[in-house]
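re: ur question from earlier - yeah i can do the single chain one, its not a big deal. heres the input i used so u can compare w yours
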Amino acid sequence: MIIPTIILEILFSINLILYWTIFIKIKNLSAKIKRYYKKIFPILWIFSLFPILIINSSLLQFIFNENISYFQEIWIWFLILGITFIIIGIRIASMAMKRYKVKVIDVKESKLIKTGIYSVIRHPVYLSWVLIFMGCSFAFDSFLAILFIPILTVLLELHCILEEKYILIPNFGQEYLGYKQKIPFRLFSPPYSYLLIIISLIVIYIGMLNFVLGN
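and the output i got, formated as tokens:
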């Protein structure tokens, strides 16, 4: 399922490019259209992300013969780890949305939230996306989805950088710059970043071991 996966990844990237083209380059576009696209933007990302998980899952090997198992006989342990990541990601998203006040369009009356989960990382919603996708990749034993995790993380980091540069700093000015200095982490903060690095190394090691033993 490599070709469908590549197509979905391209669609995911195009959605990001289109989003920032609309908000940076197209100045004459009405605020109504921008608000509408802001709402469907995450939906388009979800519909391009989660099919990657499903069509590459080893659980569907009886349908797609080319799908391979990344974790093989120890998959159950990564299923548990994946469910843990999903729960944490949903919890972080819930904590963030309860305090979420920063709007992409018309932020004149909004206030910058710096408490709760926002006192630890600046973009907790996007962190929750990474954790949920990672957890689902483990749970579905989806090889190509696992390979896409670092790409997804880089794209979301880029999205955060652009959001800060073109939306948050222009609208909140020195208040956001001060917040940015106080909370230096966009997505991952220590010690959680170190834990994720360790888990990534373990996943890579297991994948390489499975590949060698399988050949």
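The longest helix spans residues 143-182. not sure if urs matches, ping me
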